[in-house]
Specification:
The chain is built from 22 helices and two strands. By secondary structure, it is an all-alpha fold. A hairpin with a 3-residue loop joins strand 1 (85-87) and strand 2 (91-93). The chain is globular, with a radius of gyration of 23 Å. The relative contact order is 0.15.
Length: 458
């Protein structure tokens, strides 16, 4: 059991509100949270520069979890056969307990672990610690308010579905009100900052599907335009600006933003940076349970981080439009930036697609595609543990995102590929095989009435 295990490194991750992290682990990799270089100053950091315990956790250079005794192993195996699931720092639990989420017996202790971290970070003077603490506090306040509302709905509605459905309509408003004070404080912090991470976090906190203007009025002063001024060499704010321009049908604005993407020197989404900022501040005395719960809570925030408007870049670089030499040059530059300094594997795929249209050499496309498939297989293995909430799996997940926060998701995926002991060709073959299996299954699936219906005339 987890209580008989001893972690020999601080690299442990896990779940708070277990259902949230199960959803995160099962998330398709094309929708993965973005990871990035920690800051412009850290952009050249490699795996070799990271702490030994983090490298070991990802690369498999040492064993991080002590072996259980034979008796414990036999007991655990019997309980697993009975349907119980391991939760790091808790032990083996019944599925119905796991599914209870914030009603689970350990939920209050998990919330307290987050509260202690937030209080510790709020006591620091630096802007980066304060904005991270405010993001965590806003999410914790929202979770608490939504839990209280769910309990009230359960009491009022019982199992009456129309009543439950009507009550669900108020959840976005409940969340906005709960996150309002923290978001307002973040927006005010952003008004006087020149720190790219602080401002990017403010843009994320203020986006409309999180908090309404009435609950955080200072968000009206937070803009993507100001973000581009604070972080002008980062492609990400320019991609967001291109998305805003497209939404208001401003073709000239899209053009200008895409030309700036082409001249950017890096591409950095700051979601994983939040994870690194928070987890680096857990004390060495934090228990296995506390580390796991806080890690899962922060990952749930990272999983919601808004990605740039990549689809606008793909549309702007449509093949027929590249007959224009200026546009071709801009698209080639944008693809080079996103391929050379990617935040995520998704960003590499976007760059590869645009690069094909920009007529990159076929051998380069083939080489990059094989590496992309290999990295995808290595990352998929990380999120395919048969025991995803056990200490071994959550430790590896935490170590991956710690490395991603410092050196980027692609560099972390390369570390996983190295740790697998497989060649890049073998890993790439696994991705291609999975893709072919999925395609065959989709082709053989029985047609639904919707799919069998003829398309409407155009």
């Amino acid at each position: 059991m987890a209580s008989n295990r001893r972690i020999r490194t601080a690299a442990v991750g896990g779940a708070i509100g277990i259902g949230i992290v199960l959803a995160f682990i099962a998330m398709p990799r094309h929708a993965a949270p973005a990871a990035e270089h920690a800051s412009p100053a850290d952009a050249s950091q490699s795996v070799a520069d990271l702490p030994a315990e983090t490298r070991a956790a990802v690369l498999g250079e040492s064993s991080d979890i002590a072996q259980e005794t034979a008796a414990d192993s036999e007991s655990d195996e019997a309980r697993r056969r009975a349907g119980e699931v391991e939760v790091c720092g808790v032990g083996l639990v019944r599925p119905e307990t796991l599914e209870s989420g914030r009603d689970a017996p350990w939920a209050a202790a998990a919330a307290s672990a987050v509260e202690r971290l937030v209080a510790r970070m709020q006591g620091e003077a630096g802007e980066q610690a304060r904005v991270t603490a405010l993001m965590l506090k806003g999410a914790a306040d929202a979770a608490s308010a939504l839990t209280a509302e769910a309990l009230a709905v359960r009491h009022r509605c019982g199992s009456v579905k129309p009543c439950i459905d009507d009550a669900a309509l108020s959840r976005p408003r409940t969340r906005s009100q709960a996150m309002g004070p923290s978001t307002e404080a973040i927006a005010k912090l952003a008004s006087s900052t020149q720190d790219p991470y602080v401002y990017a976090t403010a843009v994320e906190a203020c986006r409309s599907n999180r908090v309404s203007g009435a609950d955080a009025p200072s968000c009206q002063l937070v803009s993507v335009e100001q973000w581009t001024r604070i972080d002008p060499t980062n492609a990400v704010p320019w991609l967001h600006l291109a998305g805003e321009a497209r939404s208001r049908k401003d073709a000239a604005g899209v053009d200008e933003a895409m030309y700036r993407v082409a001249t950017a020197t890096t591409s950095r989404v700051d979601g994983a940076r939040l994870y690194g900022e928070a987890m680096s501040r857990l004390t060495a005395e934090a228990s296995e349970f506390e580390k796991a719960q806080v890690a899962g809570f922060v990952l749930a925030i990272v999983a919601e981080w808004q990605l740039p408007a990549y689809q606008v870049a793909v549309q702007w670089c449509a093949a027929p439009l590249l007959q224009d030499s200026n546009r071709w040059q801009a698209c080639d530059g944008a693809a080079q930036t996103l391929m050379t300094h990617p935040s995520t594997l998704l960003e590499r795929r976007i760059a590869l697609r645009i690069g094909e249209r920009a007529r990159w050499p076929a051998e380069r496309i083939a080489r990059l595609r094989e590496e992309d498939d290999a990295l995808a297989a290595a990352q998929s293995d990380l999120f395919s543990s048969p025991d995803p909430l056990g200490c071994g799996a959550v430790m590896r997940t935490h170590a991956f995102w710690t490395l991603a926060a410092a050196a980027g998701e692609v560099e972390a995926a390369r570390a996983l590929a190295k740790a697998s002991g497989k060649s890049m060709q073998t890993l790439a073959g696994e991705t291609r095989m999975s893709r072919e299996t999925f395609a065959r299954a989709a082709a053989s699936a029985p047609a639904t009435p919707e799919s069998a219906a003829p398309s409407p005339a155009r």
